[in-house]
Amino acid sequence: MSDERSDDRPADTRPATDVPVLSVENVTAGYGETTVLRDISLSMDEGEVVSLVGRNGAGKTTTLRTINGILHPTSGSVVYRGEDVSTLGPAETAQRGISLVPEERQIFPELTVMENLRLADHGGADDVESMAIGEALEMFENLKDRTGNPGSSLSGGEQQMLAIARALVAGADLMLLDEPTEGLAPYIVQDVMDIVAELDERGITVLLVEQNVHVALELADRNYVIDRGEIVWEGSSADLEDNEAILDRYLGVSV
Predict the structure, then answer these.
(1) Please, which of 57, 78, 115, 229 could form a disulfide with 38 given CB 3.0 to 4.6 Å?
(2) Is 16 part of any domain?
(3) Beta strands in 32-85 (DSSP E)
């Protein structure tokens, strides 16, 4: 792939289908002998933003790691666009268009912004239309004037934007965002929220892990609440906002 691709590239021509983009079916998973997820199920349709919310240690990050292949289920399955990807590793799921943006961002700190993007461009998904580097830089104005700056010189918010931009350039079709607003100043949180809203407008399917329930309620079409490795509630943002018992018991917040 090359950053010199034309902006008038053809749209995604995959046929429409009733098969969910993602279906996590009765998955149990964990680390060694420690079970973290217990028989969880969730699904996502094309172009949805779905949040997974819960307290620290509830199993949110473990869920993302199981979807992208860092962890493998001990039972159950992860099905992506009709294909069982439960036994694939992270490189193989990335080639299919599943992109994890971890809480730690994991950009290359010694490489420049442009070098980070070019690496993503050359190592991206095989069958998914990726975003040209120039288009990504137009989307992330904070990065546009910093293409020659090393990743280590960026602020936390800018590093988060670079991590999301890399995923787009690599061909993200399903984006897994792990705590994208964690540790950011309020005005930067709004910038990241605007980016997630733009991903939604572009039709990219997003699974958003957030401890900030207010962010999740504003951005998500649907929400799953996880507690001690089990899905305990699912529904729309309006329903979650109105459910004071769930908010208080499992999330420790009031809206």
Answers:
(1) 229
(2) no
(3) 34-44, 49-53, 75-80, 83-84
